[in-house]
Amino acid sequence: MKMSASPAPAAYANLKARFLEGLAPRDLRAILGAARQRRFFAHSVVINQEDQARSLYLLAEGRARYFYITPEGQKLLLPWILPGEIFGAAALLSRSSCYLVSTETVKQCSILIWDKLTIRGLVERFPALLDNALSIAFDYLDWARSAHIGLACHSARLRLAQALVNLARDIGGNIQEGIEIAVTNEDLANAANVTPFTASRLLSEWNRRGALTKSRGKILLRFPQQLFTREV
């Protein structure tokens, strides 16, 4: 659900976003000035898979994530979207294209939006935008490759341990006792390509060993290195 819409505020000129790297301050102001800002409540669907890609989005505040609905109706949770990251990049293509996956907000979000005609014109004016978009696309391809290799070659334990470490790096908050991560068993299971039962079993083992503390919707990661060793 949308909360409001307004021109992109000047405060976002200092937003750290890979898509906007390498641009002069004057060019950056022109690009941000062409965007609309919209606020979304938590758990709002921003774009739907298979819809026509008519806009490019940049997350300015909050947190979102990709997801995919299978033909059988199963919802597959995909990577997080953090502040400074773009989504809906199919709108950059010259041909008519559809979004491959859906996007939903996890927290209340502020999002900058460029319609397809506007962002295509900006890419022609500022080629650095296209270079940055290609670099981001390359990183997603690398992520997909790593996920495929992990599924084919690594154990469920190793995949879940690595997923926890990655989430701690990306969305974790440092506190005195360790790194706190707002994540559910379902999130972890999807991130590691394991079943919810396997995720629950391994988390219980790590909780028992003191490597982490599990509570409702949160994990306190205390000793990450212990995730990669077995009980003896």
What does this structure look like?
This protein is an alpha+beta fold. The chain has helices at residues 25-33, 116-125, 128-153, 156-171, 185-192, 196-209; strands at residues 2-7, 36-40, 45-47, 55-61, 64-69, 75-81, 86-87, 102-105, 109-115, 173-175, 178-181, 212-215, 218-221. It has 2 domains: 2-150, Jelly Rolls, CATH 2.60.120; 154-228, Arc Repressor Mutant, subunit A, CATH 1.10.10. A 5-stranded antiparallel beta sheet has the order 1-2-9-4-7. The chain has a 4-stranded antiparallel beta sheet with strand order 3-8-5-6. Helix 4 (156-171) packs across helix 5 and helix 5 packs across helix 6. It is elongated. The termini are far apart.
**Shape, please?**
elongated
**Distance linking N and C termini:** 50 Å
- The helix-strand sequence is EHEEEEEEEEHHHEEHHEE
Number of helices: 6
The number of domains: 2
CATH topology of the largest domain: Jelly Rolls
Radius of gyration: 19 Å
Strand content: 25-35%
CATH H level of the largest domain: which superfamily? Jelly Rolls
Essential attributes:
Jelly Rolls; 6 helices; 13 strands; 232 residues; 5-stranded antiparallel sheet; Arc Repressor Mutant, subunit A; alpha+beta; 36% helix
Outline of the structure:
The protein has helices spanning 25-33, 116-125, 128-153, 156-171, 185-192, 196-209; strands spanning 2-7, 36-40, 45-47, 55-61, 64-69, 75-81, 86-87, 102-105, 109-115, 173-175, 178-181, 212-215, 218-221. By secondary structure, it is α+β, with helices and mostly antiparallel strands.
